[in-house]
What does this fold into?
Amino acid sequence: MYNIVDTSQVISNETKPTDALRKYKNSSMFRAVQSVKDGKSHAIVSSGNTGALMVISTVLMKTIKGISRPAIASMFPTMKSKTVMLDLGANIECDLKNILDFAILGKTFSKTLLNINKPKIGLLNVGSEVLKGNQIVQLAAKKLQMEKNINFYGFIEGNDIPKGLVDVVVTDGFTGNIALKTAEGTADLYTSYLKSSFKDNLYSKFAFIISLPVLKSLWNRVNPGKYNGAMFLGLNGIVVKSHGRSDAYGFANAISVAYDLSINNFNEKIISDIKKLFK
It folds into this structure.
């Protein structure tokens, strides 16, 4: 069963998040978040303005008790399987509590949706050596190391993410967003190189035909749509952000992520984990 709700306002990518909250209460985004808050819907999936979605969701839903700030999380393909990384831009500056909260959120997500019993947690840092990193990262590492219910791997560097050394990558939103955009840009670069190489001459075009089965297999593994659906974790409701450039396949995957979070009682499991960790 579904209802089509008529709305008269549109939140564009140029709309300031604070304006979206105060002035666009009859937009589809605001009404959808309100619907989840009121218990009329189980989740919201949006490909709209990320900042507006975060502000509206945070103000209306509030964060889960014990979680200081929500985090944006997403899955990445790796040489081994998948890894989840957070925060990807919701919190530019983070304190120790934020980082520890992200570890809880990532651990619960990995257990719930990726079915990893004891997910390995890694802290993104400028080096893997124990003395590297700023004070917040150093303190977070010590706390995570001491927590018996956290399987803490240690520090990882940016080039370790695609290796799949850990199941959860924890970082602040500033660093995480740069890492995300760098990965997206690198993927676009190599896709462009590959396309142009196959168009060079008749031989390269023939090579493309021969390589087509391999290329299709590769695309199935790295297709961005397969990993579409960034999650706003830590809110009293399920919120999933689809990439604005996503196609139907990618948007369907974002809906699937929202469904999985909802049907697996993700938020209830976070509440349970909060009571067990860092006491």
Remarks:
- The chain has a mean pLDDT of 89.
- DSSP finds nine helices and eight strands in the chain.
- The chain has one domain: 62-275.
- The CA atoms of residues 42 and 263 lie 9 Å apart.
